[in-house]
Every structure is written in structure tokens, then in C-alpha cells.
Amino acid sequence: xxxxxxxxxxxxxxxxxxxxxxxxxxxxxxxxxxxxxxxxxxxxxxxxxxxxxxxxxxxxxxxxxxxxxxxxxxxxxxxxxxxxxxxxxxxxxxxxxxxxxxxxxxxxxxxxxxxxxxxxxxxxxxxxxxxxxxxxxxxxxxxxxxxxxxxxxxxxxxxxxxxxxxxxxxxxxxxxxxxxxxxxxxxxxxxxxxxxxxxxxxxxxxxxxxxxxxxxxxxxxxxxxxxxxxxxxxxxxxxxxxxxxxxxxxxxxxxxxxxxxxxxxx
Length: 266
What we know:
Layout (H helix, E strand, L loop, with lengths): L12 E5 L4 H12 L3 E5 L3 H12 L4 E4 L7 H14 L5 E4 L14 H29 L6 E6 L13 H21 L4 E8 L8 H5 L1 H5 L10 H12 L10 E4 L3 H8 L5
Parallel strand pairs: 1-2, 1-4, 2-3, 4-5, 5-6, 6-7
Helix pairs in contact: 1-8, 3-4, 4-5
């Protein structure tokens, strides 16, 4: 018999990095709507605190833990702050990220280090630091979940000159597979989401030029908060318990339409 609570997150504790805005905020709001207690982390304290207040107004629980997770020390500090408040963690969303664009001949080492550190190293070391809390929550009947936020730029060929960004996101997808293979024995299920066009500070085309961006999406619109929250809720809930190591593409068809049409589609 299929449970009525297939997508419920009632009683679960979640941490969303980069949760003060954009995709992270969309996911946090969706988790709260399904009954989860949600912690959000962000580098800037004021926006993080404000988002937590806003999302708690719906009657749910959202708690701010401002933290810069761009370094390994930062990931350890965030893990310690979370574990000081909670004995276990049911859901970790590694969403904090950065982008860098520059012409090939001008691309700097800083543009590589900043992006790879936050987009690829941070998800690994934060998951490592929080593994004890994830294991404490995990069981065969209710696994803990780690959801890495990748990008369709790690799947299809974009002609934007974001060399370190596409490398980091492709690497994160492969890292998701390897972490999933290692952690499944602990009943920790690792997956990823590859978003397309969603309004955010990182995707300014979708935010500032929505109508024009929508024309390049096969379903003719940019993603909404419900689209992103729905994907994350699926993976985080009982509904997604049998999904392990996979990357869910949430992009209105862009990546695969581009692959079918050939390089000029990008």
C-alpha cells in the first residue's frame, strides 16, 4: 500500500547551504512546507537571519546559522554549530556556490580556485564533517539524504566562458556518484539536482531577462520556486528513497534538447 505521506518531511531536520536566497531559499521554503525543521547557512549574516525570519512566518521553523563555507575550516565550523543544536541531521543540501566568467586568454587562477573550492571541495568536506549526524539519523527504513546542487552546465556544452564553473559542476556530478556508492552502506543516499534557468543572483539572465531567456527553454518558461522545491522534496522524502547517485535535471528540457539539436543549440 502506498503511504499518504510519500512526500512528507514531517519530523525531519534539514540544513541548506546558500539558503538565504535563490535556489537555496526555494528548497528551504519547500522543505518547511512539508513539515521539516530547516537550518539555513549563508556567508552574510543579515540576509541569512532575514530569510529565516521570513520563512518562519508561515508557521514552520527556519533557523539561521551564518557561516562562510568556502574553506574547510568553515565547513567544520558550520558542522560544529549544527551538531551543537541537533544530535542528528536527516537532510543536507549542498547548495552554496560561485561562478566566474572571463575570456580564455584572461581567465585567472583566482577564477579557478574560488569556484572549485566552493563548488566541489565544500560539498565533500561539509558532508564529511556532518557524516556522524547523518549516520545518527539514518536507517534502512528512513535513510538520510545528501542533495548536491550541480547545474546543467555540467551536463551539456555551454559556450559561455565559465571554465571553472562548468568543470566544478561536472565534477560535482561525478563526486555525487562516488559519494553515493560509499555512503549507501551507512543508509545515507546521495543525489544531485542540475538546475537550468531559475531566477537568482547567479543566473541574472533568468532574473533580469526572463522573457528572452524563456524563449531558449523548450517548455517556454524559466523555472519557478515550486519546480525547484518539488524536485528537492522528491529526493529528500520517502518518494525518493530508491534514487541513489543520480542527478535529476530540472531545466525545462534545455540540456537534452541542446544535445539532440547539436552544438549550435547552445
